[in-house]
Amino acid sequence: MPEMLQKIIAYDEIVIHRHKNPDPDALGSQLGLRDILRYNFPDKTISAVGYDEPSLAFIGQMDHLPDETFKGKLVIVTDTANTARIDDDRYQTGDFLIKIDHHPNDDPYGDLRDVDPTASSASEMIANFAFEHGLQLSDTAARFLYAGIVGDTGRFLYPATTAKTLYTAAKLAAYHFDRTGLMREMDSFDIKIARLQGYVYENLEISSEGVARVVISQAIMKAYQISDSETSAIVSAPGKIKAIQSWAIFVEQADGHYRVRMRSKQAPINEIAKLHAGGGHPLASGANSYSTEENNDIFQQLRNNLVSFKK
Ligand code: AMP
Q1: In terms of domains, do 182 and 230 share one?
Q2: pLDDT of the residue at 67
Q3: Separation of alpha carbons 80 and 102, rounded Å
Q4: Domain assignment of residue 150, given as a range
Q5: Are 231 and 253 a contacting pair, CB within 8 Å?
Q6: In this predicted model, what pLDDT tens digit does every residue of 118-173 receive, in sequence order?
Q7: 241, 249, 299, 301: which is deepest, by most CB within 10 A?
Q8: Ligand 1 pocket member 103 (CB < 6 A)
Q9: Burial letters for 46-55: b for 16+ Cβ neighbours within 10 Å, e otherwise?
Q10: Does 231 sit in the ligand 1 pocket, CB within 6 Å?
């Protein structure tokens, strides 16, 4: 039996965390695992903690634990590359810490790790953990995990989508949940997001190499009534344009610095993100910039990166 399952069996109380600013894979892997453990171990107390992101409330809800510490509990963190991004600092107070993730293992935290950067999503990993070890899935767990896989693969578009991803998704699709309703929900946005997308397309600067950038200032966010987390809905938009290979969206924060959301179709960009207080996947990274000069540096680095990639 794998050590992870041994630990799960050994603890009566388990708390599951995921990263801050959750996306569908963060929530899907966290809540999928919670549901699988509740279903297979009904005598245990299994909780999921973190901020309830309103725009993703249709996926599921957190538990709210009043406990000051998680002493005596097993803590599992899904989909989170580094400790700074773990939502809810109480993860540090548990008895034993397990990391389950599909990002590059740059910060190998935890007492035990299951890290597979070849997996499309943490949700794919959790689904296969259950399938491979004879754990039963409820229809609800299948829905969570399917949402996570769809979220992180851009509905099976990105190259991290493997035959195994599709096979896993097919097995999940055999459960009973409203798949079309879920997909519709994930594919829909408010009219204000559509208008912001219009702003992005109107204001994209595209270099001769195929690198694009746009700045979303605090003033624009105010004008379009958009929160920082809602900018996730427009991050993939530049990728629809044929001429664009890599892109960066600079989202100005209240303190004046920029959250940089970087994406690429083929050339890896995570090393550039690491140079600017960030990191992430080869083709989907995030960083922080502290001036317009640094924004320009990032844009130039993306251009140079694409030139050397094409050689
Ligand atoms: P985002 O543009 O925020 O959706 O981020 C894309 C990916 O980059 C996420 O899945 C994270 O893995 C990673 N990421 C974002 N921000 C950071 C950061 N500050 N440090 C490390 N990784 C990050």
Answers
A1: no
A2: 87
A3: 8
A4: 3-186
A5: no
A6: 999 999 999 999 999 999 999 999 999 999 999 999 999 999 999 999 999 999 99
A7: 249
A8: yes
A9: bbbbbeebee
A10: no
Our mutation pick for probing the ligand 1 site, out of 85, 259, 269, counting the most ligand atoms within 8 A of Cβ, is 85
**117 and 213, same domain (yes or no):** no
17 C-beta closer than 6 A to ligand 1:
no
Tell me how many domains the chain contains.
Answer: 2
The pLDDT tens digits of the residues spanning 62-90 come to 999 998 899 999 999 999 999 999 999 99
Q: Are residues 112 and 220 in the same domain?
A: no
CATH code of residue 103: 3.90.1640.10
**237 contacts: CB under 8 Å, gap ≥ 6:** 197, 200, 201
Q: Quick one: DSSP state of residue 19?
A: B
**CB 81 near ligand 1, within 6 Å:** yes
Q: Within the chain, which residues score under 50 in pLDDT?
A: none
The average confidence (pLDDT) of the chain is 97
**pLDDT for residue 298:** 98
What CATH number corresponds to the domain at position 196? Answer: 3.10.310.30
Same-domain check for residues 170 and 26:
yes
Partners of 14 in the β-ladder: 46, 74
Which of 142, 170, 186 finishes a domain? 186
pTM given for the model: 0.90
Using the mean position of ligand 1's atoms as its centre, give its distance from the Cα of residue 285 in Å.
5
